[in-house]
Amino acid sequence: MILYLHGFDATSPGNYEKVRQLQFIDDDVRLLSYSTLYPKHDMQHLLNEVCKQLKLTNDKQPLLVGVGLGGFWAERIGFLAGIKTVLVNPNLWPEENMPGKIDRPEEYVDIAQKCVKEFRLKNRGRALCLLSVNDEILDSQRSETLLSQYYEVIWDRQQPHKFPSLSSHMVSIKAFKKQL
């Protein structure tokens, strides 16, 4: 089973396309939607949804995939739920780059401060990170500097921020899912 978390643009047709691409790895791909506007509500909602979905599968190696803002959530929810994640151009600092787009962006700071101390250290090796060299929204180098200490980072030279095509990384994602 693969659980997919969309980015800030929840209605983008690219979400359906990425779900379709991920079905080449696992027939059971489930889109988990969330508001994107209310961080504390989104965190509780997503944690509940992921835990519910984990109870509904026999897959011993489920995977959580998040793009953009979904990558922010995937990393944290995956850690709390004990499952591996793939972070695609994760928005690691939404409180900095989303004011005016969401209500209460300061809640992301509060969530980060309340998260388990040094959770990335405890989660080392349990995430795979795909970063675009040509990300027009986020500073990929800043993300790489932080995440490469804990996770494998794969650079992509073709895809923009929304990462419409995962196809060149399917082998890596599939191998990561199957890895114990």
Automatic annotation (TrEMBL):
One of its GO terms (molecular function) is hydrolase activity. The keyword Hydrolase applies. InterPro entries: AB_hydrolase_fold, UPF0227, UPF0227/Esterase_YqiA. It comes from the Bacteria. The keyword Transmembrane does not apply. Pfam families: UPF0227. Keywords: Hydrolase. Belongs to the UPF0227 family. This is UPF0227 protein KDN34_06330.
